[in-house]
Amino acid sequence: MQIRDKVAVVTGAASGIGLAIARLFVAEGAKVVAVDWHAEAIAAAVADIGGTIIGMTGNVAVEADCVAMIDRAIAEYGRIDILVNNAGVMDLFQSVADLDNETWRRCMSVNVDGPMYAMRRAVPLMLAQGGGSIINIASVAATGGGAAGAAYTASKHALIGLTKSTAFQYARLGLRCNALAVGGVSTNIMDSVDNSRLDQAALGRLGAYHSSSPGTLEPIDIANAVLFLASDAARHLNGAVLPVDMGWSAA
User: Fold this and answer.
1) Which structural domain range is residue 198 located in?
2) CA–CA separation, 66 vs 73, rounded Å?
3) What is the CATH number of the domain that holds 120?
4) What transmembrane ranges does the database entry give (predicted)?
5) Which of 19, 143, 221, 249 has the highest count of CB atoms within 10 angstroms of its CB?
6) Helix crossing, 114-129 with 150-169: angle to 10°?
7) In this structure, is residue 30 part of a structural domain?
8) What are φ and ψ of residue 105, in 5° steps?
């Protein structure tokens, strides 16, 4: 097993990609702290997965919650080897002229502030133990402008910048930081927004891009890529943005 006895923190772990990652990590012998803002859902997920896994309720937009989840890994397992920043929210597909402050701040707080808070707490601990692996779940929206609205697109671009900066700064100290630019995945991320408020005009424009998608991935497809980046098999990959999109970004 590629990550046996490694300690991992996974955010957004109650459903979709995060749930698939947590399940696969436990199956591969890792010790997991699974975090989500839905208390009942994370409790159910942990009970279903079984094995060496702890569930926590937390909102990554709150710095104290991010600190608490990293500290929980240290308290329970004595170290943190892997951090997967998966929790994220979608926008309303608004173009910049129609973008409201609430949507902008929500996307930035969950999609950018959260990973930064978690990384800021985890990195010194990883360095003290000799290294670690951070994987940030980005999107095809991180490398282009046609996949989502202005808020989500900007947040995922920012996440890539955070990934690359971290990778470069700590490359000689045993710490790796990579990202996945995922394509369309069968998840419930649209539950994070009020569908009645979606910008239909902007969606019409974005349809040209979405029509080029080769298909929809399953959460396990992303989890398998995360497992690879977390493992020693990817020890020479640092600062990479790995597309997992069935070739969508190649169009």
Assistant:
1) 7-244
2) 11
3) 3.40.50.720
4) 7-26
5) 19
6) 10
7) yes
8) -65, -35
The distance from CA 155 to its chain's CA centroid, rounded to whole angstroms, is 12
DSSP 217: B
φ and ψ at 194, to 5 degrees? -85, 105
List active site positions. 152, 156
State the residue for tokens 């308290």. Answer: 75
Close Cβ partners of 196 (under 8 Å, ≥ 6 residues apart): none
What's the DSSP call for residue 32? E
- What are all long-range contacts of 164-169, with beta carbons under 8 Å and residues at least 24 apart? 164/239, 166/119, 166/123, 166/134, 167/238, 167/239, 167/240, 168/239
171-184 residue pLDDT tens: 999 999 999 999 98
Q: Distance of CA 164 to CAs 114, 136, 144, 171, Å?
A: 16, 11, 17, 10
232 found inside a domain: yes
190 pLDDT band, cuts 50/70/90, is: low
Residue 243 tokens, joined: 């597309």
**What is the CA 93 to chain-centroid distance, rounded?**
20
Number of domains, the chain:
1
Residues linked to residue 134 through DSSP beta bridges, in sequence order = 83, 177
Alpha carbon distance, N-terminus to C-terminus of the chain: 35
C-alpha dihedral (201, 204, 210, 211), degrees to nearest 10:
180
Is the pTM higher than 0.90? yes
Check: CB of residue 201 under 8 Å from CB of residue 161.
Answer: no
In a domain, 1, yes or no: no
Cα–Cα separations (whole angstroms), residue 89 to 86, 108, 216: 10, 9, 18
